[in-house]
Specification:
Helices cover about 10% and strands about 35% of the residues. The protein is mostly beta strands and about 200 residues long. The strands form four sheets. Strands 2, 4, 5, 6, 8 and 10 form a six-stranded antiparallel beta sheet that branches. Strands 11-7-9-12 form a four-stranded antiparallel beta sheet. The two termini are about 20 Å apart. The model is unreliable at about 160-170 and about 175-195 (pLDDT under 50).
Length: about 200
């Protein structure tokens, strides 16, 4: 396991976490994907229009809930139009295999707010948005809800789930906790409002 200092992790630490398999990706990092203290998350190949926003809840993977709530599947490979007022769940190219003392949180980038796109991250077994429990291992998904039809900037795989990509974006922070506590500590992976989703890491004592 990569040795992590307390607090928010640097871009250099994020690269080491990738090498150690803590951050998993479907494709190599883009040259500008790793930020000074966070990682931009990228759209995958598929999105699903769903009846409403949801959390999978304990012991339920997102894919199981999609089976019940999905209206149709969208192939993002050629680009796609996301309709106003609808809710979509998009696969992300990044996933996590967090140690038991490391958690994560996500927050939207500022640009998503400027273009009226609402976005947040969900995970398997999640009971709240934008929070990834310590020890989580599995895929990441972005919930995207545009306030206008996204036709001119159609989202495609690898797009940073942000305004310029025709979708919202997210940032992710990961933080290890060395202090004993009754509940697992969390690190932050939060969708940010700029373009792509992002992931950052931090450690707390």
């Amino acid at each position: 396991m990569v040795a992590l200092r307390d607090g928010i992790q640097s871009g250099e630490s994020i690269l080491r976490l990738k090498e150690a398999g803590v951050i998993r990706t479907a494709a190599p990092f883009a040259a500008d994907q790793v930020q000074p203290a966070s990682l931009d998350l990228r759209l995958g190949a598929k999105a699903y229009r769903v009846r409403a926003s949801f959390l999978p809840g304990p012991n339920r993977p997102v894919r199981d809930r999609l089976g019940a709530l999905s209206l149709h599947e969208i192939d993002l490979t050629p680009g796609a139009v996301l309709e106003t007022g609808c809710v979509y769940i998009a696969e992300l190219q990044e996933g996590l295999a967090l140690p038991k003392d490391v958690s994560a949180a996500a927050n939207p980038k500022s640009s998503t707010g400027r273009i009226d796109v609402f976005t947040r991250v969900i995970t398997d077994r999640a009971q709240e948005f934008d929070t990834i429990e310590a020890g989580y291992e599995g895929p990441l998904y972005a919930e995207i809800s545009p306030a206008f039809s996204m036709a001119s900037t159609a989202p495609r795989p690898g797009a940073r789930a942000g305004p310029t990509a025709g979708a919202s974006s997210t940032s992710c922070s990961i933080s290890p906790s060395t202090a004993p506590s009754p509940s697992p500590s969390r690190s932050a992976i939060r969708p940010r409002t700029a373009c792509p989703p992002r992931c950052s890491c931090s450690r707390f004592t």
